[in-house]
């Protein structure tokens, strides 16, 4: 079907509609070809590829340090988590052990990213369904967390904060104090949003029993994150394969049993609360010490050594122009992204550039299952379902 024909009438009276690729509810550039009978969706096809950026191919022509800012552009709503996944995959390949303070900093910034992602998802979904007041509450809460991330990294949306072997900047006392106050305000905004949405009859009716999927189908499609937890499966990489210092914190994995859009909404709302608890514990336990490994084959030397010794100058030159060198081999490392398991599969040929980088984006299998979620429902429910699966174009297309 061509893009020029937005509506095609079939012989049996059904209509074929184009939804997208440029549609305000698409959250990116995705085309859904709908076969409808009245207001019911009889069949649908999802067509992606309009935002392909060649991330994986670009990685093959870049050294490991140059790739880090590119990862911010995958899920640009929660960029810190993207960076953590990539640098930890490289560190695992190189056998690098992080200092304790660096581990805590990564947890704090990852959970801030998770909160901003969930706040954005719920806010956009609420606005698309006509709930404008909660949208402004949640966007105000997100702005506080953006300011917190900006104070730590100097960047609101694409921070380029983490490095192989550590972080680019340490957390300041001002950041810690601001973040503690911001979390209290976010909790207040979240409480007001719950009162407006959870028992709102219109919002409930738009989400309940729409975009529904069974537990078995969710597993077979490869769902992770809030979507797998909305069918009652408590899979979370932070619990099942703990990394950094997540095993030191007291937090729960929210689950729901509905398998519909309302269950996904409830899971995300509670995950924001659990992330807040993790950040508060991490700030309380944050140890003193270095934020980088003491290894100049991985991290840039201190400036006094660069200016005061030939060894420091050479190390600085080689890391700047070549980046760290990884041993020959392959590795897969996964972190818990805001939308599910985010994995990096790296194949190294023993040089300063990866031979192959493969990203496992959490929203790819979910977008592939979109026809299963919307077939049999109403056209109007597509907006609610598409918003709750939280497809991120940069991550989906790569």
Q: Describe it for me?
A:
The protein has 398 residues and is of the alpha+beta class. It has a single domain, classed as Cytochrome-c3 Hydrogenase, chain B. β7 and β8 form a beta hairpin. The longest helix has 29 residues. The model has no long low-confidence stretch (mean pLDDT 89).
Outline the fold blueprint.
Blueprint: E1 7-9, E2 15-19, E3 31-37, E4 40-47, H1 55-60, H2 64-71, H3 79-94, H4 100-128, H5 132-153, E5 162-163, E6 166-167, H6 173-197, H7 201-207, H8 215-221, H9 226-229, H10 237-240, H11 261-285, H12 303-308, H13 310-321, E7 329-337, E8 340-348, E9 354-360, H14 363-368, H15 370-374, H16 379-389, H17 393-397
Antiparallel strand pairs: 1-2, 2-3, 3-4, 5-6, 7-8, 8-9
Helix pairs in contact: 2-3, 3-4, 4-5, 4-11, 4-16, 5-6, 6-11
Core attributes:
3-stranded antiparallel β-sheet, alpha+beta, 17 helices, globular, 398 residues, Cytochrome-c3 Hydrogenase, chain B, 4-stranded antiparallel β-sheet
CATH architecture: Orthogonal Bundle
Largest sheet at a glance?
4 strands, antiparallel
Number of helices: 17
* CATH C-level name: Mainly Alpha
N-end to C-end Cα span? 25 Å
Order of helices and strands: EEEEHHHHHEEHHHHHHHHEEEHHHH
Q: Structural class from helices and strands?
A: alpha+beta
Instruction: State the CATH superfamily name.
Output: Cytochrome-c3 Hydrogenase, chain B
Poorly predicted regions are: none
Cross-sheet strand order for the largest sheet: 1-2-3-4
